[in-house]
Amino acid sequence: MAKGVAGADLVIEAVFEDIGVKTKVFASLDQVSPPDAILASNTSTLWIAEIAAATHRPDRCIGTHFLIPAALTPLVEIVRGPDTSDQTHQMVIDFLGACGKETVTVADSPGFVINRLYLPLVNEAFFALQDHLATAEEIDKSCKMGLNFPLGPLAAADAFGLDILLACMQTFHRELGDKYRPCPLLVKLVKAGHLGRKTGKGVYRYGK
User: Residue 153 belongs to what H/E stretch?
Assistant: First the structure.
């Protein structure tokens, strides 16, 4: 890590969505990166304030939430922590603009805007499947044909990982209340190790 960030002006972290892992990485980055480097987190649900508190430079910490797939999705959510400076904020906007990205600045709150809206919908699709409202294929087709989604919510969950979805919903549930309770079917699939494409089986089955 020290060699990789020794000359960095901006470091974007994209490790597993776990606050313990992220704060450990940020504490390490704080020690080995240049003192004026900006440290950005790609977290999708966690508090930037808590991540930044692991460093001695909270004014130079910020959230840059790239949407999946990052290379093809034009929007990045920028998340200001309570101590993020105006200079840090503007530098990150300028950098992402130079990368061809559009940005929106959102408040530091679990899920920000995109995932606060989208992941409960995906979780609700698991409730619909659990309650036998329709098959997985029909639920996904409804969202693709009826709501113009590029990928149905169940297939999308398989693509980014059911364990990731569950971790995000558990954060929402803990921080925002019971209406964000993870679907029991989602919990059951994760406990069974059926995490989606990466394990060959989630809501759907996949070849090797």
Answer: helix 153-160
